[in-house]
Amino acid sequence: MDIYNKQESNVRSYSNSFPVVFSSAKGCWLKTENGDRYIDFLAGAGSLNYGHNNAIFKKALIEYIESDGVTHGLDMHTEAKSAFLTALRNHIFEPRNLDYKVQFTGPTGTNAVEAAMKLARKVTGRANIVTFTNGFHGCTYGALAATGNQHHRGGSGMPLAGTSRLPYEGYAGVDSLLLLETMLNDNSSGLDKPAAVLLETLQGEGGLNVASNEWLQRLSKICKDNGVLVIVDDIQAGCGRTGTFFSFEPSGIKPDMVTLSKSIGGYGLPMALVLMKPELDKWAPGEHNGTFRGNNHAFVTATKAIESYWANDDFEKHIAERSQQVKKVIDRSLKRHSSLFVRAKGRGMMQGIECKDGDLASAISRCCFEKGMIIETAGPNDEVVKFFCPLTISESELEQGLHIFEQAAEYVAQTATRKAS
Fold first, then answer.
1. What's residue 183's pLDDT?
2. What distance in Å separates the CA atoms of residue 318 and residue 409, rounded to the nearest whole number?
3. Looking at residue 283, what DSSP letter applies?
């Protein structure tokens, strides 16, 4: 550990919670240099929906590398890019009756959010963007202005501007959409007419808060009636995490733009996209630039991910079954440990359980780690234990992880009882 403490910046975070040295990984398992195994309920914060070192993707990637396939090509045409765009169109867009053009941005999610915000402003000629409480969109300045978390905002070192924040559904009992609609139609509301509304349909870092289909439909209609674009940030909730490829599918809305990153590359390789309705593609060539726009290795594994898991509905059925497995344990835990837990959060394989405070959630996470599982917390006070394993996990492996969680909850509950007495 000495090399990390001496040479790596204090900005690192996950390694503080899980202070071991990992040497290999497969599926939903991580192995340390000492040979200890941990079941992974973090999955690279959602960048490993298809598991570690997926055999299908690995084979395709090795073959591509060994054939001297293009590694880096700026935004030039390559066979790997063509195959990815074709798979995306044939297996994702067309079956869902979606018509999007694809922009390859810099390789992380915040790059995609920055590009989407910038394009919305360019297209509409307006600067303001409406965002929501507890939203998380990244840590570069534009995306950070849209992010609610004060810990991240506090690192900016300068004022964060260009956004107006409204309550997310259920926040403080406020009907934020009535408020938005009223303010958009009141010349004295003080709300500068926005270029776009930016939101997660299921807030990840904000605590697994879910927007209802009805709320999303109302929001979409208000925006359409007022000439405001809708940008859905599906960076964490997309690529099957909530049960469907896009998190917004159950609502029936069709956002003007969608941002994707994390698991879109399939193998954990960095790639980020902005999907936009064709009429919004007002960029001049090179106007939004970057050396690493697209990643040919990620194109290869992303293509395999789409072709292998999204050509039919088998994977969605698997996700639904595993989601019910998680839900049963959460529901059982709520009944068994009312002294610890408040309510269930999230949906699909993006579920969690809210603890009465962040200390309890952290204690459960630590106990899980001691028993051989990696699991993190979320929410404004880190009060939500977040179940985020690879979507490809088997029934028996998921059962192992859920059993560890239940053991940890039991231990923390008993410890809290002893302290209270």
1. 98
2. 27
3. P
Q: 12 burial class (0-12, 13-18, 19+ CB within 10 angstroms)?
A: exposed
Separation of alpha carbons 82 and 147, rounded Å: 34
C-alpha to C-alpha distance for 300 and 298, rounded to whole angstroms: 5
User: Which alpha helices (DSSP H) does 279-340 contain, by range?
Assistant: 296-309, 314-336
For residues 329 and 406, the answer to whether their CB atoms sit within 8 Å is yes
pLDDT tens-digit series, residues 65-113: 999 999 999 999 999 999 999 999 999 999 999 999 999 999 999 999 9
CB neighbours of residue 74 within 10 Å: 11
**Residue 249 to residues 56, 59, 240, 253: CA-CA distances in angstroms?**
27, 31, 11, 7
Phi first, then psi: give them for residue 179, nearest 5 degrees: -65, -45
Q: How many CA atoms lie within 13 A of 273 on its CB side?
A: 24
3-state secondary structure 382-419: CCEEEECCCCCCCHHHHHHHHHHHHHHHHHHHHHHHHH
- Reported as a single tens digit per residue, the pLDDT across 209-262 is 999 999 999 999 999 999 999 999 999 999 999 999 999 999 999 999 999 999
